[in-house]
Structure formats: structure tokens, C-alpha cells
Design a protein that fits this description.
binds hypoxanthine, Rossmann fold, about 240 residues, alpha/beta, 11-stranded mixed β-sheet, 5 helices
Amino acid sequence: MTVYAIIGGTGLTQLEGLNIRQSLPLDTPYGAPSAEIQVGEYAGREVLFLARHGHPHRVAPHQVNYRANLWALKQAGAEAILAVNAVGGIHAAMGTGHFCVPHQVIDYTSGREHTYFADDLEYVTHIDFSYPYSEPLRERLIAALAAQGCAYSSHGVYACTQGPRLETVAEIARLERDGCDIVGMTGMPEAALARELGLDYACLALVVNPAAGKSTAVITMAQIEQALHDGMGLAKATLARVLMA
Ligand code: HPA
């Protein structure tokens, strides 16, 4: 049976309902992951859980040690990663509370440690990243969202920005011209590192605000927190369905 790991983002630093058996304080050649990896039972199945921003939430998106996080999950036995990400909505269909299972990503980040193929190399490895997300895993997420009765999109292009600030209106207009549907700060290099390690990876994105310029209102943390609070229950139920399937 595939060993799943859930990477919880903003609003999901704890997986309530996870019957924790062990907390692994792992170290890696790249440093420590954001938090201990919890091993336990969720929805009747053994699963690993890692809080991407630490628990409590303290690591900013550009400071997350993505290499350590993915390495530690693999070390703990993970084979497939379900990543949960809060995002802003760019496409008109991506209203607050909407879920999206992106099929593509564009990386706008800079200066992040983004590869394992950097030090003491005998040869350079170029991974195929044409299709950044695992299609079978995406299909599982989509089936779970459909069964859950959520508003969702089965496709979308995820723009990953550097953060931690939100974008300007012109930046979002550019991302839209590039074909992006949602925008977040944590999708990369996480997805690429998973591929480098041979881990299946898919993203469950929850829209928590209209991206800059997509609404006349100022984007507030209170609004984002409310949307996270409202949406994470459904996100957790969706994850549970994936694990039970
Ligand atoms: N932009 C980038 N990242 C985000 C946003 C946004 O509007 N909302 C949540 N994460």
C-alpha cells in the first residue's frame, strides 16, 4: 500500500483526527525540516504529516527549507505527497472557497534552494518536469472533491511567487497573461524536489482571497484567515476520502 504524506500549509499546521503514534525529529543533509514528522493513523490508514511552515506557523514561504522537508518525508518512508496550499484566485472561476487541483505550475520564485542536484556532482541530472504533478494522484484528489460535493476545478495553472508580500495588480495581470489561474507562494520548489526524489506529488489548493486587482477590496489577513477557517474542514475531509479510496 502506498505510503502517503500530507504537507499542510497555512491553516493546516495540525491534522486534527490524526491519531499520532510517533513524532520524528529528523535531520537531513540539508538541515532540519520545518517541524517533526508526525506518523499516525488518519481515516483508518497510516499516514505521515508535516506542517510546511512549522507548528506553530513560524516559517515564511521563502524561508521554508523545502529540501529538508521533502528529504525527511522520503526518509520517513513517504512515497506519495498530498500538498495543501492556500492560494489567491486569478481566474474568474477561482472564487474564495473554491478548490483547484492544478495540472501545471510556473515558478516565479528566486533565490530558493531548489534542487538536490547541486553539490559534489558526478554528473548533472535534468529531471523531466513537463507534467509537474502526478496524474493518478490528481485524479484521486478530483474524485474526492467530487464525492465531497465541493466547488472545484480539476485543472489550473499555479503561479508560485516569492512572497511574503502579496502581488501588485500589474504582477497579477502579467500572471494572467501568462495563463495562470491561481497564485501562491509555496508550490515551488516543493513539487520539483519531490520529482527529483522520485515521489509522486499533487496539490490541493484552496482559494482564500481574490488575487490583487481581482476585487475592489483590500486583501486583509482577517479575510484570508476566515476563508482558511471555512475551507480547511472540507480540505481535511477531501484528504480523508483520498486515503480511504
Ligand atoms: N498571492 C500569493 N499567495 C497567496 C495569496 C495571494 O493572493 N493568497 C494566499 N496565498
